[in-house]
Specification:
The protein has 446 residues and is mostly beta strands. The chain has 2 domains: 225 residues, Leucine-rich repeat, LRR (right-handed beta-alpha superhelix); 215 residues, 24 nucleotide stem-loop, u2 snrnp hairpin iv. U2 a', Chain A (Alpha-Beta Horseshoe). 6% of the residues lie in helices and 23% in strands. Helix 3 links the parallel strand 34 and strand 35. It is elongated.
Length: 446
């Protein structure tokens, strides 16, 4: 006697329907296309059996007596409902299944791969693969092309790659690849084109070395690559043309290079590249013209010259460049004309000039130039005419002549600035304009 350890909810008997790849728009509710192969009435005449088949004696014994491998799917390869694989070996019960309408959960098993799921082409719900300590491979999912819900791969300590997902093209929900201790690369998702959920997380995978397998990814809403201890290289994304929300690459301590993202002309949210202390090369984003949110570049301790964002013209939020200990040049930003919120340059120890910001005429909120020990001149802000917020700080720039800071503030006040301006802790050098009326070497506040 064999007891089934696969839990199936609402299993149905079908007469003739065999689902095909291409049903994802229908699964997501987009059935306006007359040529769609998954019509609204597909399930209208089905005889739904809500018995979860817990009486394994009759079903499994009859299969075994017939000399055929046991299966939980109908003759046409269809399962309606959720499937949970709880113990090792029982993915074999899914042989021949092409389509599962509900979720598939592979949770805390002793499986080493996913053999037995080789025929599965589409999942109408989500795929959850988590806490499988011996799972080394996703082999067995090679035919899977579409997931209407989420893809979650979490806490699989022995999983080294995502090989096995090479046929996956579309995901209707979010993606979460998190806490897989042995995962070294994302290779295996190379064919992915669409991920339509709220977020795409690649998080806390301590052995992950590269994220560069998404050259065909066309559409996502939010990307967060966060806290992957061994991650050295992030790049590619060459067909990703727009991101409605944000791109964030944060706190990956071994990250050395960020490149690619060269098809994106607009991002409605923010770009955050922060806390990557080994980052030495920051290129890419070469077509990005409009950023609706904020631009944060911080704690990239090995970047000497910013080489990204060469086409950037407008930032709807703020621009923050802070605590980049090796940064000398930001000239790549020479196309930037406006900041909708703040402009903040803070604690960049080697930054000598602000060349690259000459075209910025208006800062929508506040201006901060603080703690840049090597900064010698403010001529990079020569085009700045208006600060529309209520605060200006020019503080603790030891090599910057105080008179230059005062000249800038006086100009902005003359143009209508009515807030508080602080000037303190700057240097005693002379200004270039002897007729400025400002005594060289004066330090103080306005």
């Amino acid at each position: 006697m064999r007891t089934a350890h696969i839990i199936l909810l609402h299993t149905v008997a079908l007469a003739a329907f065999a689902p095909l790849p291409g049903c994802l728009p229908w699964l997501l509710g987009d059935d306006d296309d007359d040529d769609l192969e998954c019509p609204d009435d597909t399930f209208s005449d089905l005889d739904v059996d809500t018995d979860s088949d817990t009486d394994a004696d009759s079903d499994t014994d009859s299969d075994a007596d017939a000399g055929e491998p046991p299966t939980w799917c109908e003759a046409n390869g269809y399962i309606e409902g959720d499937v949970s694989i709880l113990n090792a070996g029982y993915s074999e019960w899914l042989r021949g299944c092409r389509y599962i309408q509900g979720d598939v959960r592979i949770d805390s098993t002793a499986l080493t791969d996913l053999s037995g799921m080789d025929d599965l082409t589409a999942i109408g719900g989500s795929l959850y693969v988590f806490h499988n300590a011996q799972l080394t491979s996703l082999s067995g999912l090679d035919s899977l092309a579409e997931i209407a819900g989420n893809l979650v791969i979490n806490g699989n300590g022995a999983l080294q790659s995502l090989a096995g997902l090479g046929g996956l093209v579309a995901i209707g929900g979010y993606v979460n690849i998190e806490d897989n201790a042995s995962l070294e690369s994302i290779d295996g998702l190379n064919a992915l084109r669409f991920a339509e959920g709220d977020s795409f997380w690649i998080t806390s995978n301590p052995s992950l070395q590269r994220v560069d397998a998404f050259d065909h990814l066309y559409s996502i809403k939010y990307l967060d690559i966060f806290s992957n201890d061994a991650l050295a290289d992030v790049g590619g994304f060459e067909e990703l043309s727009a991101v409605p929300w944000s791109v964030e690459i944060r706190y990956n301590p071994a990250l050395e290079s960020v490149w690619g993202f060269d098809a994106m002309a607009a991002i409605e949210g923010s770009v955050v590249i922060s806390g990557n202390h080994s980052l030495a090369s920051l290129t890419g984003f070469s077509a990005l013209e409009n950023l609706g949110g904020d631009l944060y570049l911080s704690e990239a301790d090995a970047v000497v010259e910013l080489q990204a964002f060469g086409a950037l013209e407008a930032v709807g939020g703020g621009v923050s460049i802070f605590s980049n200990n090796a940064l000398v040049s930001i000239e790549a930003l020479d196309g930037l004309t406006s900041c909708g919120a703040w402009l903040s340059l803070w604690n960049n120890e080697q930054l000598v000039s602000l060349h690259g910001l000459e075209s910025v005429s208006t800062v929508g909120e506040n201006l901060y130039v603080n703690g840049n020990a090597a900064l010698e001149r403010l001529d990079g802000l020569a085009g700045l005419q208006n600060v529309d917020g209520d605060e200006i700080q020019l503080l603790d720039n030891e090599s910057l002549p105080t008179c230059e800071a005062q000249e800038l503030v006086e100009l902005l006040i003359a143009n209508g600035f009515e807030g508080t301006a602080e000037i303190d802790g700057n240097g005693d050098g002379e200004c270039d304009d002897p007729d400025s009326g400002v005594d060289a070497g004066t330090d103080g506040g306005i």
